[in-house]
What we know:
Blueprint: E1 4-12, E2 16-21, E3 24-29, H1 32-37, E4 44-54, E5 57-63, H2 66-76, H3 83-92, H4 95-103, H5 107-111, H6 118-138, H7 153-164, H8 169-176, H9 186-197
Parallel strand pairs: 3-5
Antiparallel strand pairs: 1-2, 1-4, 2-3, 4-5
Amino acid sequence: xxxxxxxxxxxxxxxxxxxxxxxxxxxxxxxxxxxxxxxxxxxxxxxxxxxxxxxxxxxxxxxxxxxxxxxxxxxxxxxxxxxxxxxxxxxxxxxxxxxxxxxxxxxxxxxxxxxxxxxxxxxxxxxxxxxxxxxxxxxxxxxxxxxxxxxxxxxxxxxxxxxxxxxxxxxxxxxxxxxxxxxxxxxxxxxxxxxxxxx
Length: 199
């Protein structure tokens, strides 16, 4: 219903903020790390939002970047992961680290997130990788793979991780063509690509 909310930051609490838009205060639940990154009260903020609708509850969840929103949507799509758990996870891991952990089967990194045990971590990896494979199978992409992507494991890992976050291969390839990847780690490539994709 709401793609984003832009207004004056009125309240910063432990797990939510209130944004005033023309005299209406929107209570938006956010991760602690995102709340800390916001400016002081009284400043203008733009928050990407997700409306969570339940039988007995209507809640807004907020994110500073589209990548955080995409990661949240992926997480709540995993069986056994609710909105509040997903928000807690966002406080503990960046979208780039999360995507990299999924594509590299890094259970250890995911289990460092509060509330995620080995079984939950394996389920997250399995379900998101299966989703990725399904999207690959139905995606029609006639574009040729750029020469710098062919046979480069580091770049291919970055491509797969960015696809976990919901970007198409074409979008990713267009951005990676602008990045000098030689001295960068896979996570640095992902982070740099996200800075371009988020523009």
